């Protein structure tokens, strides 16, 4: 899997500061990474400072201070805490990270707290983040609180956001609450209300609307929230067991 620099968040959300996002494609393996190869199952917690690339199966939590990459054939059943998560396979568990990318073949199910997330595949779960972009072909089934949402794909569920921008290919279903709407087309098959009206009745919505009003940009989580003290974690008693599946043919 090759990492290709791509500054889509800078274009959509106007974030800069020298940061760049990455898009995964089949090819090279990233450097300085622990690799779970296809046909291998890891049972237990993975902790470290380097990246982790999963093409097999991990049944346990992953906590790293770098990137977690789940390849097209990779599956993770556990919680993730990392600087960045790129999923082109399957992830069932909660995620805390600075950024998440769910690629075309990817499926993420769980509760996600993140500064920014791109969905080209499927995301099902609860979401709290600063910026959400649902690409054309992306599918989001969500209960969420988001500062800014840009939709080119499908959003279904209950979503509260301060800013909503719909593109011509977008489809909105469920219940949407937004303070500001920039409608550039698409299909609206849902009820739309104001975030501030929801906040009058809902304590969680009131908290996040206040938080969105207070911050500049889209940074809700500080580094310490997705940072792992590796030395402290490694003092625990958890062990990792590796099972190698039989290959036939």
**Rg for CA atoms:** 18 Å
Structural class: mainly beta
| Overall strand count | 20
User: Could you name the ranges where pLDDT drops below 50 across 5 or more consecutive residues?
Assistant: 1-10, 14-28
What does the model show?
The chain has about 250 residues and is mostly beta strands. It has one domain. It is built from 5 helices and 20 strands. The protein has an 18-stranded mixed β-sheet that branches. A two-stranded antiparallel sheet has the order 1-2. α2 crosses α3. The radius of gyration is 18 Å and the shape is globular. It starts with a strand and ends in a 5-residue tail after the last strand. The N terminus is likely disordered.
Q: What's this model, at a glance?
A:
The protein has helices at residues 8-13, 195-201, 203-214, 223-226, 230-234, and strands at 2-6, 21-25, 33-36, 40-43, 46-48, 51-54, 57-59, 62-64, 67-70, 75-77, 80-87, 90-92, 95-102, 107-119, 122-134, 139-151, 154-166, 171-183, 187-193, 241-244. With 249 residues, it is mainly β. Mean pLDDT is 87; it is low at 1-10 and 14-28.
Name the features.
249 residues; mainly beta; 18-stranded mixed β-sheet; two-stranded antiparallel sheet; 53% strand; globular
Strand-helix topology:
Elements (H helix, E strand, L loop, with lengths): L1 E5 L1 H6 L7 E5 L7 E4 L3 E4 L2 E3 L2 E4 L2 E3 L2 E3 L2 E4 L4 E3 L2 E8 L2 E3 L2 E8 L4 E13 L2 E13 L4 E13 L2 E13 L4 E13 L3 E7 L1 H7 L1 H12 L8 H4 L3 H5 L6 E4 L5
Parallel strand pairs: 3-6, 4-7, 5-8, 6-9, 7-10, 8-11, 9-11, 10-12, 11-13, 12-14, 13-14, 14-15, 15-16, 16-17, 17-18, 18-19
Antiparallel strand pairs: 1-2, 4-20
């Amino acid at each position: 899997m090759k990492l290709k620099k791509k500054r889509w968040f800078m274009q959509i959300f106007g974030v800069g500061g020298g940061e760049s996002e990455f898009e995964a494609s089949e090819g090279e393996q990233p450097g300085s990474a622990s690799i779970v190869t296809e046909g291998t199952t890891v049972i237990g917690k993975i902790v470290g400072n380097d990246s982790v690339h999963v093409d097999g199966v991990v049944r346990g939590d992953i906590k790293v201070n770098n990137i977690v990459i789940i390849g097209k054939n990779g599956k993770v059943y556990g919680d993730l805490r990392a600087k960045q998560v790129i999923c082109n396979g399957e992830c069932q568990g909660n995620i805390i990270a600075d950024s998440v990318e769910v690629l075309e073949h990817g499926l993420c199910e769980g509760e996600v707290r993140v500064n920014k997330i791109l969905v080209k595949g499927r995301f099902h779960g609860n979401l709290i983040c600063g910026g959400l972009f649902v690409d054309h072909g992306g599918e989001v089934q969500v209960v969420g609180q988001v500062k800014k949402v840009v939709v080119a794909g499908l959003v279904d569920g209950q979503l509260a956001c301060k800013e909503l921008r719909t593109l011509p290919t977008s489809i909105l279903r469920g219940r949407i609450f937004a303070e500001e709407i920039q409608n550039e087309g698409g299909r609206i098959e849902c009820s739309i209300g104001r975030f501030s009206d929801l906040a009058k009745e809902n304590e969680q919505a009131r908290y996040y609307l206040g938080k969105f009003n207070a911050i500049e940009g889209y940074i809700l989580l500080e580094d310490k929230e997705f940072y792992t003290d590796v030395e402290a974690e490694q003092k625990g008693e958890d062990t990792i067991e590796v099972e190698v599946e039989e290959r036939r043919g």
